[in-house]
Amino acid sequence: MTGLLSTPARRAAGLMVGLLVLALLAAVSVSYGALATSWRTVIEAYTQFNGSNEHLVITEVRVPRTAIALAVGASLGMAGALLQMLTRNPLADPEVFGLNAGAALAIVVAVSVFSISSLAAFTALAFVGAACAGLGVLLLGSLGRDGMTPLKLTLAGAAVWALCESVTSGFLTVNERALDEVLFWLKGSVAGRNLERFLPVLPYMVLGWLGAVWVAGPLRVLMMGEDVARSLGQRTMRVKVVTGVVIVLLAGSSVAIAGPIGFVGLVAPHAARALVGFRLRWQAVYSGLLGAIVLLAADIGGRYVAMPKELPIGVMTALIGAPVFIALARRERR
GO cellular component annotations, sorted alphabetically (predicted)? Predict the structure, then answer.
């Protein structure tokens, strides 16, 4: 599969077009909403700030929200791409592999048992929960004589996801207060987050982006098969572990700041593969770009569907991703 962009020039041009689309969506995200503003107002909010409602909405709400949507979308897209490469499973996604569920469980336990309610604490706990879930998948997938295999990783991810979901449901059933406090976060959202909570998470995302592009090279050899990779001198276990750590960095940091958002890590890699084929480094880059586009478009759409109220971004991505998931599942069955 060569993809639609079969030459380096076309892939570079496609990247420029994608960045232009992303810039246009970012402009729409900053300028439009329940309170309409002009680009002149946007510029004045940073050059001649006067404390007006318009300036406060731009600087404290829309710009941080747009930046977070871009970063989270890129991280989820890359995490999904690496998961699909590592497991050779086209249906792999950070949510399916239990990372989102692990983060949600950490939040619910903190609220139910320790009465923690601050969003800053939610951020830290979500990152820890997602990381623990990812490490649990890696450990379970490594058990047995053959070590870590794509099938065992997939089964381990499903097991961790089911366990975390069950325990979370149990806590919420017996503690209605916890349900009230975390319900909006559990649906996934980039609203209500600010740069003070986002910036501490950003270094993990940047490290994950760089790691995703780097590890895509060794993964190309690994995807030829375990025996072939070993015969070429590759330390397959090291590649798998490093890939797992990068996935945890990307998915964990995303869930930490925005909550569990599904399907972006499923849709973006398939779209990237259609464009660039199995050139894995290009695929990782395009998955990040397309993930950012999908998430930002979903966030903008969520503002307008029920204006002046809005739908959580997790609901919007589910509306986009569920039909894609069904179509992929039907294709794989055939």
Answer: plasma membrane
